[in-house]
TrEMBL record:
It comes from the Eukaryota. Molecular chaperone; assists the folding of proteins upon ATP hydrolysis. Known to play a role, in vitro, in the folding of actin and tubulin. The keyword Ribonucleoprotein does not apply. InterPro entries: Chap_CCT_alpha (IPR012715), Chaperone_TCP-1 (IPR017998), Chaperonin_TCP-1_CS (IPR002194), Cpn60/GroEL/TCP-1 (IPR002423), GroEL-like_apical_dom_sf (IPR027409), GROEL-like_equatorial_sf (IPR027413), TCP-1-like_intermed_sf (IPR027410), TCP-1_chaperonin (IPR053374). One of its GO terms (biological process) is protein folding. It is found in: Cytoplasm. Keywords: ATP-binding, Chaperone, Cytoplasm, Nucleotide-binding. This is T-complex protein 1 subunit alpha. GO terms for molecular function: ATP binding; ATP hydrolysis activity; ATP-dependent protein folding chaperone; unfolded protein binding. Belongs to the TCP-1 chaperonin family.
Amino acid sequence: MSISAQNPDISGDRQSGQDVRTQNVVACQAISNIVKTSLGPVGLDKMLVDDIGDVTITNDGATILRMLEVEHPAAKVLVELAELQDREVGDGTTSVVIVAAELLKRANDLVRNKIHPTSIISGYRLAMREACKYIDEKLVTKVEKLGRVPLINCAKTSMSSKLISGDSDFFANLVVDAVLSVKMTNQRGEIKYPIKGINILKAHGQSARDSYLLKGYALNTGRAAQGMPLRVSPAKIACLDFNLQKTKMQLGVQVVVNDPRELEKIRQRQEADMTKERIEKLLKAGANVILTTKGIDDMALKYFVEAGAIAVRRVRKDDMRHVAKATGATLVTTFADMEGEETFDPAHLGSADEVVEERIADDDVVLIKGTKTSSAVSLILRGANDYMLDEMERALHDSLCIVKRTLESNAVVAGGGAVESALSVYLEHLATTLGSREQLAIAEFAEALLVIPKVLAVNAAKDATELVAKLRAYHHTAQTKADKKHYSSMGLDLVNGIVRNNLEAGVIEPAMSKVKIIQFATEAAITILRIDDMIKLVKEDGQGDE
């Protein structure tokens, strides 16, 4: 029997068993170590310089990992994990990566001690379910009819680790106002807060505290011509997605002319009149604000100026969609109708109370105020330089998402490592009651969750071992003694390096954020843990030498 049958000829490297696992775990640890120091209210920022020399200074886990361009396949899973958390919840991207990497590391130790990965996976799954159940039943504080205070506290907690933590009172109020002003009820009667309707504009100059909230959707472009009025009220808005320029003949269109004198007429009709007729149709339908994603040339602008309408060209597609949604307009891509004629239906127009052009910093901005269907607001951020503005935008995005989640789920938990410590104590106790193989995996899961309070304490230059021990003692008391239930919201105060009741101190997060962190981190760890064989194919040379 030949040996070659055992090892088929693969044009690539094959690694299997423990090697692959160790390699994957090391890669994930490396990723987690990068973002580890940016966790928490005293976390530090990262400076990333890309290949063309653009600098990004950020504290946001998802942004850091997105900029890293990770090669390793297992580490890519963690990067995608952070992006998923960013999409689903908006905040907690750093924690989710750290927890996942820690779970992996501990699982790898178990596998080395001759415990089969399948048992570990089922143990982790069980622990995840129990943890989520425990959060929902024991740790959640329902915030019925949310007042402003819990919302502001959630926003402040989310901002605490970011650049703007010094002005968190000011920004938290901005964020809460912004989210509350886009409240809407959809067809099914659910109350939603579409934070896409909040437009964030960045303008240089002044200080961060001079940022403010504008009622109305701001477009970061000025009017197309100076002769246009500065304000139009009430506004009828047409959203177009084509050029209002001299129409060129399509390629391959041939015109056979018998009389050379007709040529000039054809050109006249072709270039000037068609655009003029289109504009007349628009104005006749009652439009007095025209937004287009493409260009408008000078000849066409003349007609708008005469009609006293505002025209804005080169509007971003995203902005256009939001304006169309907010004003009830329809994006029109062509005037052609079924009969081959060109018509414009007045029903496509959106309406708003007024459209004005204002100067913000050094830019002209067109504001659409009092929109018909949903209210749109814009946050105008002021700051010293680009890096600061970008980082402020990321921080505000996280806070907006968190406030939205809190409003939609109505449940909050204490922050500052409180939930993780409580779960750790609970799961450890749970593990000792199980007589099956999963016991060890669940115990390790419990240990892994403690990584969050540990990292928080280390980043704050405090004694992690002592603080985490105190924290666990409190949570153990809370879970064993009936009269000490309120200890379950004990968390870390990282400024003073003590343990305190974070629910009373106002350090709170939406429960959904915590549940998702645990679910996503476990799923990612399981995905990577299942891998026991990695085959990397060699790139074939294009020439083919043989």
